[in-house]
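so my prof wants the structure for this chain in the tokens format not the other one, which i didnt know existed until like an hour ago. anyway here's the sequence
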Amino acid sequence: MDGLNIYNSAGLMALTNLREGEVKLGQKVQTVATLDEITSSSAQFVLVGIPEDIGVRANYGIAGAASTWEPTLKALLNIQSTPFFNGEELLILGHFAISEPTKTEVPYLQEKVAEIDALVYPVIQKIIAAGKTPIVIGGGHNNAYPIIKGVSLGLKAPIDVINIDAHADLRPATGRHSGNGFSYAIKDGYLIRYGIFGLHQNYNNNAILETIAANQHIYPVFFDDLLKSDQPIFSAWSKLVKKTGTTPGLELDLDCIENVLSSAMTPSGFSLNEIRKLILNPTKKFAYLHICEGAVALIDGRRCQTTPKTLTYLISDFIKSQK
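here's what i got, hopefully its the right format
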């Protein structure tokens, strides 16, 4: 059955490669036995995985995002524990085990995505209600919706979100998939102000552009305009962040970073170091971090072994900058 698999310290240690004279992150991170124990943990950050690509396939994308969580977790557990990032700041909760639907036509995949929504949001709500900061590793961008819903319910108020992404994911709210998580969040009243950083003009259709233009609370920053500008990217980023409230959510779709393996992999995008700079120099605290769409292996045969290390940099940067 679908559900949350909660990890224990023994399971994490089995993924940690010990070395004499060194202390790895896996030796320091925290675990819990139940969701109720999150409140009493001293860790500020709670890591959870959603290894699925059903939402991607429901949006006619290429499967593979489900391959990312386990190798990323292992890569993270094996970085060094240092004063910069000791590991005790992080509680590794577990991952959502999600079964494949028996029927693979798009309408059935979309039904399954709605089931995933119902599975995810109560856990995120519980993490937020405990006063912690969720870090969610996907999985498809469909999971933005239950994360936003869970954070909003946990805070008992609608939230703002900044999404670093080549795509707005504002397709019509008619059947759940990876391309309309923000449409549903806006429609259902969980998301108010929505900033999108790095949109590609070539890959957002006219209907989406009209949706953006019609909503005064959607703030687009196009990657094409950043390329034309003589101003540093960080300047445009800071202006966008200022348009959101005190503690917005942070979404990062890895298809915005050039040459990172994903269903919509791009040769033209932000560099990894540019994204790291944005995360390492925050102008606000963020309510959560969601990193999605990256893959180690796509169903079409493409593979990339550096994706877990990419995510490890981004996770550790976020924790260092938000402590």
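also thought this was worth mentioning. The CA atoms of residues 45 and 90 lie 5 Å apart.
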